[in-house]
């Protein structure tokens, strides 16, 4: 079983069924449900996701969606040293992206799934979009 870190944009691809990106994420969620893949995110992802969901639905509905999501994915704690590691990460310009990336490393994720590949161009680990991940693993798992 491999592990993936889910960036906010790929979570929203799934939850909002964004055209062109929904199929890879639906398949990924199915594999997570079958315990074929272990998925991680952080409270930061949930906050950003909640903000976007709240624009489209009611507060109770947005919270219910996130409660269901947290039954599937592991929410990685943010230890104090992540702040200094992210601030020291000179390969990722955006601080929030650096925090997410450092958390992905901490969780030992095999892949960091995002649609903002350019934000992680200098990252040392495997950063892929959900479509690439889907194409790589659709036949292997």
Average pLDDT value?
86
Strand order of the largest sheet: 3-2-1-4-5
Helix and strand element order: EHHEHHEHHEEH
Based on helices, strands and strand pairing, what is the structural class? alpha/beta
Number of strands: 5
The biggest sheet amounts to: 5 strands, parallel
- Percent of residues in helical segments? 40-55%
Number of DSSP helical runs: 7
As a percent range, the share of strand residues is 5-15%
Outline the low-pLDDT stretches: none
Shape: globular
| Rg, Å, rounded | 15 Å
The first-to-last residue Cα distance is 9 Å
Structure explained in plain terms:
The protein has about 140 residues and is of the alpha/beta class. About 50% of the residues lie in helices and about 15% in strands. A five-stranded parallel β-sheet has the order 3-2-1-4-5, with helices on both faces. α2 packs across α7. The radius of gyration is 15 Å and the shape is globular.
Detail the topology: elements first, then pairings.
Blueprint lengths: L1 E5 L1 H8 L6 H12 L3 E6 H12 L4 H14 L1 E3 L4 H8 L6 H12 L4 E3 L13 E2 L1 H8 L4
Parallel strand pairs: 1-2, 1-4, 2-3, 4-5
Helix pairs in contact: 1-2, 1-3, 2-7, 3-4, 5-6
Keywords:
141 residues, alpha/beta, 7 helices, 52% helix, 13% strand, globular
Give a quick precis of the structure.
With 141 residues, this protein is an alpha/beta fold.
């Amino acid at each position: 079983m491999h592990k993936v870190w889910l960036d906010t944009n790929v979570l929203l691809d799934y939850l909002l069924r964004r055209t062109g990106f929904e199929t890879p994420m639906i398949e990924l969620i199915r594999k997570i449900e079958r315990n074929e893949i272990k998925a991680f995110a952080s409270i930061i992802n949930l906050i950003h996701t909640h903000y976007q969901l709240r624009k489209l639905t009611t507060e109770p509905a947005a919270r219910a969606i996130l409660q269901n999501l947290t039954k599937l994915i592991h929410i990685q704690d943010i230890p104090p040293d992540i702040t200094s590691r992210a601030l020291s990460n000179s390969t990722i310009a955006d601080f929030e992206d650096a925090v997410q990336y450092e958390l992905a490393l901490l969780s030992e994720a095999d892949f960091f799934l995002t649609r903002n590949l350019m934000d992680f161009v200098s990252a040392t680990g495997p950063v892929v979009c959900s479509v690439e991940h889907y194409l790589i693993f659709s036949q292997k798992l």
